[in-house]
Please model this.
Amino acid sequence: MNVLGIESSCDETAAAVVSSPLQVRSSVVASQIAAHRVHGGVVPELAARSHLEALQPVLSTAVEESGLRWTDIDALAVTQGPGLSSSLLMGMGAARALSARLGVPLIPVHHMEGHLLSFFLSPEAPPPQAVCPLLVLLVTGGHTALIRMNAPGDYQVLGRSIDDAAGEALDKGARLLGLPYPGGPEIEKLAREGNGEAVPFPRGLPNSTSALERGGAYAFSFSGLKTALRYYVEGNPETSKADVAASYQTAVMGALSTRVDQALKQESGIRGVACVGGVAKNDYLRDTLLAVVRRHKAELHTVPLQYCTDNAAMIAAVPLLRSLESSTSVPAVSPNLQLNGLQLR
Ligand code: KG4
Ligand code: ZN
Model:
C-alpha cells in the first residue's frame, strides 16, 4: 500500500509518499516562513496563495523522489483540519482532483492525529503494539495536550491547555522580546546564553476547579505567564534578554514536564512517553522530559526533527497505522474529525 499524503493546514505546503510496512519514501516540505516573517506571524491570504503556487511542484517532487510512478499510488491522505480554512481548502482541492484523476480513495486526516503518530516515522520506532498504552505530549503552535494512546485511533485526552498553546506562548513571548517569528526556536537559541532561574515566572499550571473542569486533570494554562512576561519586560528593561528568554522557556517547559511526571505517577499501565509537534524540537524540553521519564524507568520516544513541525509523511502514515491495527488492507479512517474522544479546539 502506497499512500500519498498532502498537508496544507498552516504555512507549510507538504507532500509525502509513505508505504506499508511503514516506510517514508519521500517527504517534501515547502516552507513559507520567510514570507510570513516580515509580518511577524502567519497571514492567511498570503498562505493560501502560496499553497496554490507550491502544491503542484511539491506533489510532483514527492512522487518523483519516492521512486514510484503515479499509477503506484493506492490512496491519498489529506489534512482535513484543524487549521486555516483557506489553506486547508487548497490542499483538499488538490487532493480531490488527484483522487478523481488517479481513481484512488481520498482519506481525510485529523492534523493532530498526524502529529500524535509522527514518532512512528522514525526508522528505529517499535510497532504500536510494542509501545502502547503510551502517554503523548502534543505540543504545537495551536494545541497543547496530554493524551493517552491505547492504540492508533484510540485516544483519550487527559489534559489540555485552557487558553494559549505552548508554541503560541513561545511565539507571543518572543514577540514581546523583539524576536522574529516563529518564536520557539529563537527563544531556544537565546536561552542557551542565559540563566533559566534568573526570573521566577509562574508555571503554566492552573489548579482552580473550573480550570481543571475545562482542561482536564492535567490542564495547562499559558496566558497568565505571557502577561507576567509583558509586565516583567516593561518593568525591568535592564535585565539581560537571554536571562528573560531562558527563564520564560523554563516556565513553559516546566509546566509540560510537571504534567508528564504527574501522569506517570497516577495513570495505570503506561509503558512510555512520546513528545510530538513543533515544540518537541526543543532540546531543553527533550532533556527535561528524558530526566523525568528515566526517573519512572519508562522510555521516551522522540520524533525525528524533520517530522516534528508540519509535514505530510505524518498525514500519510495515519491510515497505514490505523489499518495495521484493524488488520485490514483498506485504510480505515473515520471520514469525520471525531477521534474516539480526541476533541481539540
Ligand atoms: O507543529 P507545528 O509545526 O505547527 C502546528 O501544528 O502548530 O508547530 C509550530 C510551533 C511554533 O509555535 C514554533 O514556535 C514551535 O513549534 N517550535 C519550537 C521550536 N521549533 C518550532 N518551539 C520551541 N523550540 C523549538 N526549537
Ligand atoms: Zn502541526
User: Anything to note?
Assistant: The longest strand covers residues 23-31. Residues 10, 140-142, 167, 170-171, 182-185, 188, 277-279, 281-282, 309-310 surround KG4 (ligand 1) (CB under 6 Å). Residues 131-302 form a domain with the Nucleotidyltransferase; domain 5 fold (CATH 3.30.420.40). The chain has two domains: 2-117+308-343, 131-302.
